[in-house]
Structures are given as C-alpha cells and as structure tokens.
Description:
Elements: H1 2-15, E1 22-26, H2 32-44, E2 47-52, E3 65-69, H3 75-78, E4 86-91, H4 97-107, E5 111-120, H5 136-154, E6 160-165, E7 171-176, H6 194-201
Parallel strand pairs: 1-2, 1-4, 2-3, 4-5
Antiparallel strand pairs: 5-7, 6-7
Helix pairs in contact: 1-2, 4-5
Amino acid sequence: MEDFQNKLNLIKERIKDIHKPLILELGVKEGRSTKMFLEICDKNDGNLISIDILDYSKVSNNPKWKFIHSSDDNFEYTKKFIEKEVDVLFIDSLHEPNHIRKVFYNYFNFVKINGLIFVDDVIWLPYVKDGYRDNDFVETTNRLTFNKILEIFNSNKDNLTLDMNFSASGLAIMSKIGNHLNSEKKIVNRLFSFKNILKKFYKPKPKN
Length: 208
Ligand SMILES: C[S@@+](CC[C@H](N)C(=O)[O-])C[C@H]1O[C@@H](n2cnc3c(N)ncnc32)[C@H](O)[C@@H]1O
C-alpha cells in the first residue's frame, strides 16, 4: 500500500505542471491511481480516460472522468473514445509481458511528442527467493516484463527515453521523443556464451 502510494507520488510529481492534460489509464480496480489523476485534472483543467475489463464505473462521478468498460486490447472499440493526443499514459492492467507489449505499441500512437508513459510493476527484486514478497510467478513475470521494456527501448532509442524506478515492484518512466516505434529485438546476452564459459574455467592463474 505504502509502496504504491510512493509510486503515485512520483508520477504526480512528474505530471503536476501539465496544463489541461489528457490522461489515459489502463487498469482502475480500487481507483487509487484514478483518484490521483483526477486530482491533477481538477487542478489543471484536464481529463482522464480509464479502461478496465471489469465495471469500475462507480469509482468516481467526477465529470472530468470517462470510464470505458472493455478489455484494453479491444483497440477498435477503445480508439473511439480517444479523441485527442494523450499527455500521460499509465499502464497498470494485465501484468503479463506480451499484453504490456501489445497495449504499449497500440497506445503509444495516441501519446503526443514529449508525453509521458508509465508502466507499473516491472521489477522482480522483492519477489526473489527469500525476498520480502517471495513469489516465483511474479518474479518470473516481472523479469520478463523488465526485459521486454529493455528490448523495446533498445530498438527505439530515437523514439523513447527510459528511466527505471527500482523501489518495491518498480515503475518504468518513459517519454515519447519520436513518432515511429520499431519492433523490439532480443538483446543477446554474452554472459553465457561458449567463449565466456571457457574463459571462466581456463582463466590463467596468477603466477605467485
Ligand atoms: C493492478 S489493478 C489496477 C490498480 C489501479 N491502477 C489502482 O491504482 O488501484 C489491475 C486492473 O486491471 C484490470 N485488467 C486486467 N486485465 C485487463 C484487460 N485486459 N483490459 C483492461 N483491464 C484489465 C483488472 O480488472 C484490474 O482492475
């Protein structure tokens, strides 16, 4: 709870001065992020569009809020509701790397240049064996999500900036600097290459 609030504070700090922002949020649930975004919309005369597969339409009756009851990958349907370029995109729906990739590539097109993109839950460290949230499934999912984000960034250094916040389950913070997204490519890890394994075993020993 505390950890998530810290992340919301971090996001709030980054977006608090955007005038008349249009914010797009994927994943509402209890509406903690929704309420924080609506606070910004009230203060800066903005609007929030939130999408969730479950009906969370009762989370707020703020007129600056539009709730879309849909899966966020039902792109033909959701695009009808996004009439302007988006200043802020927050991805916090289905925490599965291929889903995150899919929604990222779709909604990136709606984000304006210099707009901000936040992806929640990208760090695995609390979930490792004997970690304070020890959980095999979440560790694996978040590792794969983290790697996916690195791959996307590595193929798009002219289109994106990337900062990682490693607190608790982590937050990726990106800004859009170019319009065209390239497909991500696997990043080859040479740690376990044949050459490096051989080096490890046949390293010459110091003479004395
Ligand atoms: C981690 S919770 C969101 C937490 C929320 N941002 C908050 O601050 O309280 C994830 C939400 O994503 C929703 N969800 C899961 N799969 C989805 C999908 N394919 N499309 C849209 N929403 C989805 C769930 O119903 C759930 O409400």
